[in-house]
Design a protein that fits this description.
The protein is mainly α and 52 residues long. It is built from 2 helices and no strands.
């Protein structure tokens, strides 16, 4: 997919490269959000297990 976007970017079709870049950054943000959220859930779960 990246090669397709790069090929279109070289052919002066900048919208493909821009769309791929936006999707790439969205994916990276979602990955970081999910990792942080899972750490928080895991921390809260461990904390509640210690009380039991």
């Amino acid at each position: 997919m990246a090669l397709y976007a790069y090929g279109n970017f070289n052919n002066q079709e900048i919208a493909y490269g821009a769309a791929f870049t936006v999707l790439f950054f969205l994916f990276i943000v979602l990955v970081f959000y999910s990792v942080l959220r899972n750490k928080k859930i895991n921390y809260e779960d461990n904390k509640s297990n210690e009380r039991s």
